[in-house]
Design goal:
53% of the residues lie in helices and 3% in strands. The radius of gyration is 15 Å and the shape is elongated. It contains 7 helices and 2 strands, in the order H-E-H-H-E-H-H-H-H. The longest helix is centred in the first third of the chain and has 16 residues. Strands 1-2 form a two-stranded parallel ribbon. The protein folds into 2 domains: 97 residues, Orthogonal Bundle (Helicase, Ruva Protein, domain 3); 46 residues, Orthogonal Bundle (Arc Repressor Mutant, subunit A). The chain is mainly α and 144 residues long.
Length: 144
């Protein structure tokens, strides 16, 4: 993505649209500061890192507007965004993003909170079948 900087915002909007629809967050949009951060970031994890940043932002943002703190990258990493990170990868190095399993678990918890515990609605909001949703509840140790 370093060689094709112009694609960053196009891809971010694509992920925002597709993931937002799957998560019931169709109205979400990137703030101007978030767009600037996306363009300034070096993207060592490439497209997958961008997709995870957008997914994390959709989960973290309470309103429609996604800010740099919601993205959890650069100086606005997980600790700055108030998102706890896992253990350091190596001595002196902390990860800049949360593991996908943590993000997924948080998405399930958030969907349940937004639907006031209605599992059918929470599954639909995440774009999952009820069976897939119940398997995730079991995998994450949440009450099924």
């Amino acid at each position: 993505m370093r060689e094709r900087e112009g694609d960053v915002l196009v891809l971010a909007e694509h992920f925002l649209r597709t993931l937002g629809e799957r998560m019931g967050r169709r109205q979400s949009r990137l703030s101007e500061q978030a767009r600037e951060l996306l363009l300034a970031h070096t993207w060592p994890g490439n497209i997958r890192e961008l997709q995870n940043a957008i997914e994390r932002a959709l989960i973290a943002a309470e309103g429609r507007n996604i800010t740099p703190a919601h993205l959890g990258i650069g100086e606005h990493g997980p600790l700055a965004a108030g998102i706890p990170s896992g253990p350091p990868i190596a001595a002196g190095f902390a990860p800049t993003t949360r593991p996908l399993v943590e993000v997924e678990k948080q998405a399930v918890v958030d969907a349940l909170q937004r639907t006031k515990g209605n599992k059918t609605q929470a599954a639909a909001a995440l774009g999952l079948s009820r069976g897939a949703f119940y398997r995730r509840l079991g995998r994450f140790g949440l009450v099924a």
